[in-house]
TrEMBL record:
Residues 30-156 form the AB hydrolase-1 domain. It holds the Pfam family Abhydrolase_1. GO terms for molecular function: hydrolase activity. One of its GO terms (cellular component) is membrane. Keywords: Hydrolase. InterPro entries: AB_hydrolase_1, AB_hydrolase_fold, AB_hydrolase_sf, Epox_hydrolase-like. This is Alpha/beta fold hydrolase.
């Protein structure tokens, strides 16, 4: 981790929201980066490296990583409320918000509920409603990502081996992915386990189809939105999470939505690889504003 990195603990409903930030003093703009449904804030170092002029704030969402002791409710709106409190704690008025996968849905709710806090959105292979057949278990959408949460591992090295052999990372293994895996572990050997709580993941998976007013909240946004699409899925399969036709339909409904295809990445490596982060950073830099330091809100 670089010398610019600082962990944080911010008081939210039920306890402390944890995570990390980079360049808290040096950054000339502020970016809030929100991870995906089973991930943590350590999916973002690739992007941080490419935003040398920005302060980057990245939480572990409620129910995940070092924030996994925070209690329910875990709904997307509740994540957005946590992040508004985080911005208060870190004395940030407005920010560009980038969200990956489920984190993009949280970003949309934050922009809808707190429009004065968000300058623009970068939605990375997420944030557009994902159709789901009635009666289908939403965890089936996540496949092995959900199954992993019920597994145990005897050693840290065994869990790192799991990720090194994961289809998404066979060609993109790096020390940063190893750090991501190490940070994700909870418990004690020989029964180490992934840190995300299955009940939190299940609650959020239910909401990814645009339920509970989400589709309407998205349609009401008037700020600039960049949508970056990965051409391959969670297992590096050729079927993407988002069909091009679904994305094109939303582009016609959201006048300020710009769609960008990111070549040669899957759902993970669109943020957790150099070539993916290059494209995300370009989208973020289109709108990165000057930061707005201030005193605490009343």
């Amino acid at each position: 981790m670089s010398e610019y990195y600082q962990p944080f603990r911010a008081r939210v409903a039920g306890g402390d929201l944890r995570g990390g930030q980079w360049r808290a003093a040096q950054g000339q703009s502020t970016v809030l980066a929100i991870h995906g449904i089973t991930a943590s804030h350590l999916c973002w170092p690739w992007l941080v490296e490419r935003l040398p002029g920005s302060r980057v704030i990245a939480p572990d969402l409620r129910g995940r990583a070092r924030s996994n002791a925070l209690p329910a409710p875990y709904g997307l709106r509740h994540h957005a409320e946590d992040l508004a409190r985080l911005l208060d704690f870190l004395e940030v008025d407005r920010t560009v918000v980038v969200g990956h996968s489920m984190g993009a849905f949280v970003a949309v709710w934050l922009a809808h509920l707190y429009p004065d806090r968000v300058d623009s959105l970068v939605l990375v292979d997420g944030g557009l409603p994902i159709p789901r057949d009635v009666g289908i278990d939403p965890l089936l959408m996540l496949g092995p990502a959900a199954k992993r949460l019920s597994q145990t591992f005897e050693t840290v090295e065994a869990y790192q081996d799991f990720w090194q052999n994961h289809p998404a990372f066979v060609a993109d293994w790096s020390s940063r992915v190893a750090d991501f895996a190490r940070y994700d572990l909870d418990g004690t050997a020989p029964a180490l386990h992934p840190s995300a709580r299955l009940e939190a993941v299940a609650a959020n998976a239910l909401e990814l189809n645009g339920a509970d007013g989400y589709a309407e909240a998205l349609a009401d946004l008037s700020l600039p939105i960049e949508f970056l699409r990965a051409p391959r899925g969670l297992l590096d399969e050729p079927t993407a999470l988002y069909d091009r036709a679904v994305v094109a339909d939303w582009a016609t409904r959201l006048p300020r939505l710009t769609v960008r295809e990111v070549d040669d990445v899957n759902h993970y490596t669109i943020v957790m690889s150099d070539r993916g982060a290059d494209q995300v950073a370009r989208a973020v830099n289109l709108y990165a504003p000057a930061s707005y330091p201030r005193g605490p809100r009343s």
